[in-house]
Design brief:
Number of strands: 15
Largest sheet: 7 strands, mixed
Distance between the termini: 68 Å
Helix content: 25-40%
Strand content: 15-25%
Radius of gyration: 22 Å
Strand order of the largest sheet: 3-2-1-6-7-14-15
Number of helices: 12
Oligomer: single chain
C-alpha cells in the first residue's frame, strides 16, 4: 500500500468565528480520499518552526463537532510572519528576519505535500510569497472585517455583525431611558463594513467609518436635532478606524513581535470631541472589542466556512495551487493568490449600502 500523502493546515492572524468549521470541512473531505493524512500546525507557522514541531493530526475524534465552537483548535498568532519573523535579541530587542526559505525547507522535510493557509489579507500575502518559493499552497479567506476584495464575503463577518447588532439593540433601550447619547465602537480596522451593517440593522442615527472622515460640528448638529427641552436620545456606531476630517486614527503601538498598530479607543475620542464642540447631552461609551471575535458562529458562517474548507481540499486534489477559495455571485469559486491580495476591500462612499443608509437618514458626519 502506498504511503498516505500529508496535508498541513494552519490558522493565522486574529481569531474568527468559523475557523473550526473550515478545519473540519477540510479534514472530512480529505478522509473521503483515503490516501491523505491531515495535520494542523499550532499558532500558524510557529508550529513548524518549533523544536520539536508542534503538529496535531486532525483525526475524526479531533475534528468531530468543532464547527459549533468559536476560536480555533489550532491556536493562532499575528506574530509569526515567516517573511518578517520576530526574533528576540540578546539585549531583549526584537529583530525581524526573513525565515521563508527555512520554512519551505522544513515543511518539505516533514513530508508535507501541500499546505492550506486559513487567514486574512496578511496571511494570504504570506501564502503568495511561499507559493513563489515553490510551496504547494492554497488559501482560505478569513476575517471578521470583510476587507478582502476578491471574495463577496468572508466567514466570521456575519457573526461579528450579529454580535454587534445584539449589543446595539441593548444600548438603544438604555439610551432612550436616560436621554443619553450612546457611542458603540466596533472593530474593522481600515474598513467600515461591521459598523455600516450594524448601523443599518440596529437603526443608528449616526455611523462613522474610516472611508468617510467626519465633521464633528455636523454630528453635534444632528444630535441636537434629536433633542427637545433636554429630552431625546441618539445612538452612534463608530468603527475603530474612523477619524475626523482634520484628525488622525486612534492607535497605539502593537505588542512586541507584532507588525500592526493596535486600534481602539476612538469612542472615547469622539465623546471628548463632542463635549469640546458644545454637545450638552449626557454621553456614554461602549467598546465591544474582542467580544465580536468570540462565541459560536452563526449558521451562515458555519455553512460558508464549511464550503470553503471542502473547496480548498478539492482545489488541492486538482493540483490548483497558488489559489484562494472565494464566494463569487453566490457560488464557491477560486482566484489566484495574487488577485486575492492586490486590492483592499474598502466601503464605497457611493455604494448601495451607504446610499441606503443615507436614504434612511443615517448621518456619516460628512
Amino acid at each position: 500500500m502506498d504511503k498516505p500523502k500529508k496535508l498541513l493546515v494552519l490558522t493565522g492572524g486574529g481569531d474568527c468565528p468559523g475557523l473550526n468549521a473550515v478545519i473540519r470541512g477540510i479534514a472530512k473531505r480529505a478522509r473521503k480520499e483515503k490516501d491523505w493524512d491531515v495535520y494542523g500546525s499550532k499558532e500558524a507557522f510557529n508550529g513548524v518552526f518549533a523544536d520539536p514541531p508542534e503538529l496535531i493530526k486532525l483525526t475524526r475524534s479531533k475534528t468531530a463537532g468543532i464547527h459549533v465552537k468559536g476560536g480555533t483548535i489550532l491556536k493562532t498568532t499575528n506574530k509569526g510572519n515567516p517573511i518578517n519573523f520576530p526574533q528576540k535579541q540578546p539585549d531583549g530587542t526584537i529583530k525581524f528576519v526573513d525565515r521563508s526559505e527555512e520554512l519551505v525547507k522544513r515543511i518539505k522535510e516533514l513530508g508535507f505535500d501541500a499546505v492550506i493557509n486559513i487567514g486574512g489579507d496578511g496571511s494570504q500575502k504570506i501564502s503568495q510569497a511561499l507559493f513563489k518559493k515553490g510551496l504547494n499552497i492554497i488559501g482560505v479567506p478569513k476575517t471578521i472585517d470583510n476587507d478582502l476584495s476578491s471574495t463577496d464575503m468572508t466567514f466570521g463577518f456575519q457573526t461579528a455583525v450579529q454580535i454587534a447588532t445584539d449589543s446595539f439593540d441593548k444600548l438603544v433601550t438604555t439610551a432612550e431611558s436616560h436621554d443619553r447619547v450612546m457611542i458603540m465602537e466596533v472593530m474593522g480596522r481600515d474598513a467600515g463594513w461591521i459598523a455600516l451593517h450594524t448601523a443599518i440593522a440596529g437603526g443608528a442615527e449616526i455611523c462613522l467609518i474610516p472611508e468617510i472622515p467626519y465633521n464633528i460640528h455636523k454630528i453635534v448638529k444632528r444630535i441636537n436635532s434629536r433633542y427637545k427641552n433636554g429630552h431625546g436620545f441618539v445612538n452612534i456606531v463608530i468603527s475603530e478606524g474612523a477619524k475626523p476630517k482634520d484628525g488622525i486614527i486612534v492607535a497605539t503601538k502593537g505588542s512586541a513581535g507584532s507588525e500592526h498598530v493596535r486600534l481602539g479607543g476612538v469612542a472615547y475620542q469622539l465623546s471628548q470631541q463632542l463635549k469640546d464642540a458644545g454637545c450638552k447631552a449626557e454621553i456614554r461609551e461602549t467598546v465591544l472589542g474582542h467580544v465580536q471575535r468570540g462565541g459560536s458562529p452563526t449558521a451562515f458562517d458555519r455553512v460558508l466556512a464549511t464550503l470553503f474548507g471542502v473547496k480548498a481540499m478539492e482545489l488541492l486534489l486538482e493540483g490548483k495551487f497558488g489559489r484562494m477559495v472565494a464566494l463569487k455571485n453566490n457560488s464557491i469559486a477560486s482566484v489566484t493568490l495574487e488577485e486575492a491580495t492586490e486590492k483592499y476591500n474598502f466601503v464605497s462612499k457611493d455604494g448601495e449600502l451607504v446610499k441606503a443608509a443615507k436614504g434612511l437618514g443615517i448621518s456619516f458626519g460628512d
